[in-house]
Amino acid sequence: MKILAAQLERSKPDTVVVSSPHNLRLFRHIGVVLSENCSGEVKEGNESVSLKAKCDLDFGMAVLHEAEERGLPVVGANYGALEGPASDLPMDWGTLIPLWFFLKRGTRRRILVVTPSRGIPLEKNFDFGKVVGRVAEAGAKRVAFVASSDQAHAHKKDGPYGFSRRAAEYDKEVVDAIEAGRLSSIMGLKPALVEAAKPDSLWQMTMLAGALEVAPMKGALVSYQVPTYFGMLCAGYERAATRPRAGRYPAGF
């Protein structure tokens, strides 16, 4: 994550889009957070990390309107108050943890939190990623996309989801797709494999694949580990320095 944070810092994005599996779980709809603020805390034993961030409402509204015009099942969501400090949607752990690395103290960098849906065809999450890419490409802001993703959750017999040999199979398919530069191929994974492996990653990575369809970039695997019952993977995508508008849309997960 420190390597990805350094990569993102070199790109100097104005806005960081985070696709999280743990934020708004809207029935058969993709969620776009339109609160002015987003804040949260994650505790582990006696330790805790907390974070507050301003949301990029202009970019969020542009993404929402573009997605609506294309007929995608998308909902904008606020929390607390219509505007002001009380307009503050709780930041889930899938959002807070990567942003803890990616938002430096005192930064004016803004965020946009989106949540894919597992109750719609996978292609619609892909199409939403393309919408994010189009809006980013059409605007003047530099935008990063973070697909916050844990991989298969069935690596350990004593884990909450039990053990399945298919967990390692799923993770290998993802690693191979990244290393081969064909992330969109994960959309072809068999539903039975996904169900047995129990990942939290397919839908966010599919959004990232959609964004890459609009703004092609070269990807590199940074790490893959299975430190517990689920797999963890870091990869980064960025444009070559020679391309026009270089760094406009860095991405990683």
For the termini, the CA-CA separation is 9 Å
CATH superfamily: LigB-like
Count of individual beta strands: 11
Q: What share of the residues lie within helices?
A: 25-40%
How many H/I helices? 7
- What is the CATH class? Alpha Beta
| Beta-strand proportion | 15-25%
- In which order are the strands of the major sheet placed? 5-2-7-1-8-11-10-9
What do the pLDDT scores average to? 93
Query: How many structural domains are formed by the residues?
Result: 1
**Which outline best applies?**
globular
Largest sheet: 8 strands, mixed
User: Topology as H/E string?
Assistant: HEEEEHEEHEHEHHHEEE
Q: State the CATH topology.
A: Protocatechuate 4,5-dioxygenase, Chain B
Radius of gyration: 17 Å
In the predicted model, the low-confidence regions spanning at least 5 consecutive residues are: 242-250
CATH architecture: 3-Layer(aba) Sandwich
Structural class: alpha/beta
Put the structure in a nutshell.
By secondary structure, the chain is of the alpha/beta class. Helix content is 33%, strand content 24%. The strands form 2 sheets. It has an 8-stranded mixed sheet, with helices on both faces. Strands 4-3-6 form a 3-stranded mixed sheet, covered by helices on one side.
Helix/strand layout:
Elements: H1 2-11, E1 15-19, E2 30-33, E3 37-44, E4 47-54, H2 57-69, E5 74-77, E6 88-90, H3 93-102, E7 110-115, H4 122-138, E8 143-147, H5 166-179, H6 191-197, H7 202-214, E9 218-225, E10 232-238, E11 251-252
Parallel strand pairs: 1-7, 1-8, 2-5, 3-6, 8-11
Antiparallel strand pairs: 2-7, 3-4, 9-10, 10-11
